[in-house]
Amino acid sequence: MCAAAVAANAQQFVIERGTEFLSFATLNAAVGALQDGDKIYIPPGLHGGTSGEIIFDVPNITIIGAGYANSVNASQFGRPVYFNADGITVTGIAFVPTGVLVCLTLGSISNLTMTRCLFIADVSMTSSSIQNSIFISECEFRGRLGGSSNNLDNATISKSILGTLNVRTSIVENCLFLTYPEYNLIASYSDFNNNIFIMASGQSGVSNITNATFNNNLFVRGTPTFSASSDVTFNASNITDAVYEDTFNDPDAGDYSLKAGSAGIGAGNDGTDIGLFGTAVPFKKSKLPAIPHFSLRSIAPETDETGNLRVKIIVEAQER
After folding, report:
1. Maximum CA extent, the chain
2. Confidence of residue 134 (pLDDT cuts 50, 70, 90)
């Protein structure tokens, strides 16, 4: 399948449409050809040109990259991206535009799934837009998730690394909050289970959370307090004042698995660890997509004496 579809160019973009495979030399050409229900495979490399935006406005498409852990082999969008259609699924992509505040903007959409992606700037939304049925798993957000005044609604966020978050009527589970000063978490009518919060030194008061429930979370370097009017349920299953140096194996190298003896081991509400490496399907350090993707390693510049073009293809996937 892949050899026939992508034999001409190591940087081709492939659309899978039923039993048909179409190849394109540029990202813009491939995006412009998308139809409802297509899958588009994004090869390793930095894509999107030097100006403009990448707009996905076709419903029910699946965008598949090669993962984001290794910058050499990562599938990267180098321009701001817009999702303006329902039913988009994206996995294995690094959103890395430089010099911008927002790397991904969401329109009024529903049924969005994002897994094993990296976002180096904010993920926001267009003014007064509405998002529903959002599923996010094993992603890394280095900016804000949710607008400064607009929130993600009806979202499930799991096993992800978070900075600033703004949610409503959502569930946040087994995530790692790298910073937890006031205003880094804005939430209402939401549940927080099995997460790790690294609190700012000397910070405890939180005034931006209302009608929320906290179960089996681990708070490092402090204990949060909430105003009496916030209607926050903070259950006894939460663990507070954990010592940072006793919590993670190698945080300087990005390894946030729990160190032996950490209070978070086996302390989740499902009996597994609190944080990224809990649940029956823990966070994957390889950060490869679970959907098989292709990566082309070499293509001969011309055919051999028998008329065949030599193509070497590697197909990779990470278990779910």
Report:
1. 81
2. very high
- Residue 187 and residue 226: Cα distance in Å, rounded? 13
Cα angle 247-252-255, degrees, rounded to a multiple of 5: 60
Say how far apart CA 8 and CA 301 lie, in whole Å.
Answer: 9
**Amino acid at position 185, single letter:** L
d(CA 77, CA 83): 13
Per-residue pLDDT at 310: 57
Q: Give tens-digit pLDDT for 86-133.
A: 999 999 999 999 999 999 999 989 999 999 999 999 999 886 667 788
Interatomic CA distance for residues 232 and 252, integer angstroms: 33
* C-alpha to C-alpha distance for 41 and 188, rounded to whole angstroms: 37
179, 163 contact by CB (below 8 A) = yes
The radius of gyration computed from the CA coordinates of the chain, to the nearest angstrom, equals: 21
The predicted structure's pLDDT at residue 52: 87
Separate counts of helices (H) and strands (E) for the chain: 2, 37
**For residue 21, which phi and psi values (nearest 5 degrees)?**
-125, 125
pLDDT in tens, 164-206: 899 999 999 999 998 765 568 889 999 999 999 998 766 655 6
List, as own/partner pairs, every contact residues 180-188 make where C-beta atoms lie below 8 angstroms and the sequence separation is at least 24, other chains included: 180/219, 180/224, 182/206, 182/207, 182/208, 183/208, 185/209, 186/146, 186/151, 187/151, 187/212, 188/151, 188/212
